[in-house]
Amino acid sequence: MREGARRGTSGFTLLELLISLVIGMVVLGAIYAVFTIQNKHFTSQEQIAEMQQIARTAMDGMSQELTMAGYDPNKSLPTPAPANAAITAADAISISFTSDLNGNSVTTDTNESVTYAFDATNFRITRNTGGGAQPFAENIQDLTMTYYDAAGAVTTTPADIRRIQISITVRTAKPDPSYTTNGGYRTYTLTSFVMPRNLTTSTTGGTSTATTAATTAATTAATTTATTVATTASTTTATTTATTVATTAETTAATTAATTVATTAATTAATTATTTVAPVGGDATISTPMVSETKKGRSNTISATISHPDGVNDVQCCFQSTCSAMTLSGATYSATFTNPSSQGVLVVYTIQFTDNFGVIRVAVYSFTTTPN
Question: Is residue 111 a contact partner of residue 122, using CB atoms and an 8 Å limit?
């Protein structure tokens, strides 16, 4: 009986156990493989997001401070640089500038003298305010800065800089074994243009001094009239008219400033004086742009005539997020681009330029691509 009972007892054979173990290992292996792939993907995306955030933060911080370069609210700092508020040094990977942020007529206070530089050895951008270079942004693979003057030409002279192009290339903190380019480091490049609003076009000598005095002393109407008369009249007429306008202004300082402007303009020769004391304001006068081609994928030339009472400098056309300098032929500015390769695409483009006071004037236009 006992032997029969043992034979009828239910259970698993060794073969069944082995098969179960194999199936279980296959399932666990599949689960582990899925987990590993998802974990790698998550880590990669996390590093990419961090990389992009570093680029945006660095660009935003540099742009904000560079915008304030040359800030001198009292117009009392001496010249030349570096005693005054201005860009004091600039090259492809570093820039130094000063500003009077608290309005006490010196640029030696905290955060008023700043240098940004690229540290290629440690892959970082540093910021130095007088206490030594401190890390500003990490995992930076490249920093490039290009400088433009008021006419839109590339310049390396700090005093002539009116517009700055900043290009920052950031890399991931760790290499990705599955990414074979650049040693496994993924990169992200961010480019931006900065217009330091306090770096305005200025003249030399007494004309510049007279302009500053006229701007701060009298009302806009009085100083504008005095300057216009000074720059267009003869020696006797300019002096007499400017003095008359100045004597009717609200303050005694206006009289002195307007008379100085008139005398300087007359001495220099009224026909060549170019003093301007205040922006006129208002939108640019841009003729309706001519679009040479609306068909998809075709080369397209955009042209327009542009004028503004405060001057026209650094004319650019931004087409589908790509900006290009417009060339001047006769009285027409033009730039060439390639239309999108699909039909029915709404193409938005802008024409922009900088006036003599550093103010950016922008006009927006659009067209829709058509079939070939």
Answer: no
Pairing relationship of beta strands 299-304 and 290-291 according to DSSP bridges: antiparallel
CA distance linking residue 216 with residue 225, whole number of Å: 15
d(CA 135, CA 95): 15
User: What backbone phi and psi angles, to 5 degrees, belong to 130?
Assistant: 120, -15
At position 63, the amino acid (one-letter code) is: S
* pLDDT given at position 196: 92
In this predicted structure, the answer to whether residue 269 has a pLDDT above a threshold of 70 is no
DSSP code for 158: G
- For CATH 2.60.40.2450, the residue range(s) in the chain are 285-368
147-158 pLDDT, tens digit each: 999 999 999 999
What is the helix (H) or strand (E) element at residue 67, kind and residue range?
helix 14-67
pLDDT interval class at 291 (50, 70, 90): confident
Rounded CA-CA distance 253/261 in Å is: 12
Does the domain at 285-368 match CATH 2.40.50.140? Answer given as no
Q: Which of 142-146, 223-227, 351-355 has the highest mean pLDDT?
A: 142-146
pTM for the full predicted model: 0.49
pLDDT for the residue numbered 65: 94
Tokens of 108: 């030696």
Structure confidence by residue, pLDDT tens digits, 361-370: 888 888 888 8
78 pLDDT above the threshold of 90:
no
Helix, strand, or coil (residue 192): strand
CA angle at residue 56 from 42 to 120, to 5 degrees? 90
Q: Is 170 helix (H, G, I), strand (E, B) or coil?
A: strand
DSSP symbol at 75: S
Rounded CA-CA distance 29/265 in Å is: 88
- Nearest in space to 340 (alpha carbons), one of 306, 311, 369: 369
Q: How many CA atoms lie within 13 A of 39 on its CB side?
A: 6
What's the chain's average pLDDT? 76
Number of H helices, E strands in the chain: 6, 18
